[in-house]
Amino acid sequence: MSVKIRLQRHGKKGKPFFHIVVADSRARRDGRFIEKLGTYNPITNPATIDLNVDSAVKWLNNGAQPTDTARAILSYKGALYKKHLQGGVAKGAFDEAEAEKRFNAWLEAKDAKVQGKVEGLSKAQADAKKAALEAEIKVNEARVAAAAQAEADAKAAEEAANAPAEEVVAEETTEGEAPAAETEENTEA
């Protein structure tokens, strides 16, 4: 019986979610499995992987062959590295405590790298949001300025339309008043 570590697809259309399982190679992709090792969600950024590393190493030592994608996931989570370190312990290169120390140091470095990526993504998202807000403020200021300019132009056009009519009325009254003013001067003299 050939045993594989592979992915079982779950989730909706367009939103995949995978279970990492140990299964007989003759079983269907989403069919019967021997043991569930964890989950993999590629939709999140960075991808969310929950894996039982010790169980995965046990199956790798028993001869289970990972598929290409499962091998990448096992490598990412350190299962292949832990298997490699156990090989060094078996050969007598170092003891179990040294292997555990090396694995924990590798895990801390990997977690720091992943955390750096998460922070970088959140910073980039915040910068993009800030740039969009500044662009929106600039557009709104341009709209307000254009509306104020249009209002000023409309007011000026209205004043220009009303001004000649007022000037004509003022000229007519000035012409009519001038003789009256002369007559008043004449009557006083």
From TrEMBL:
<dbReference type="InterPro" id="IPR000307">
    <property type="entry name" value="Ribosomal_bS16"/>
</dbReference>
<feature type="region of interest" description="Disordered">
    <location>
        <begin position="148"/>
        <end position="189"/>
    </location>
</feature>
<dbReference type="GO" id="GO:0006412">
    <property type="term" value="P:translation"/>
</dbReference>
<keyword id="KW-0687">Ribonucleoprotein</keyword>
<dbReference type="InterPro" id="IPR023803">
    <property type="entry name" value="Ribosomal_bS16_dom_sf"/>
</dbReference>
<dbReference type="GO" id="GO:0015935">
    <property type="term" value="C:small ribosomal subunit"/>
</dbReference>
<protein>
    <recommendedName>
        <fullName>Small ribosomal subunit protein bS16</fullName>
    </recommendedName>
</protein>
<dbReference type="GO" id="GO:0003735">
    <property type="term" value="F:structural constituent of ribosome"/>
</dbReference>
<comment type="similarity">
    <text>Belongs to the bacterial ribosomal protein bS16 family.</text>
</comment>
<dbReference type="Pfam" id="PF00886">
    <property type="entry name" value="Ribosomal_S16"/>
</dbReference>
<keyword id="KW-0689">Ribosomal protein</keyword>
<dbReference type="GO" id="GO:0005737">
    <property type="term" value="C:cytoplasm"/>
</dbReference>
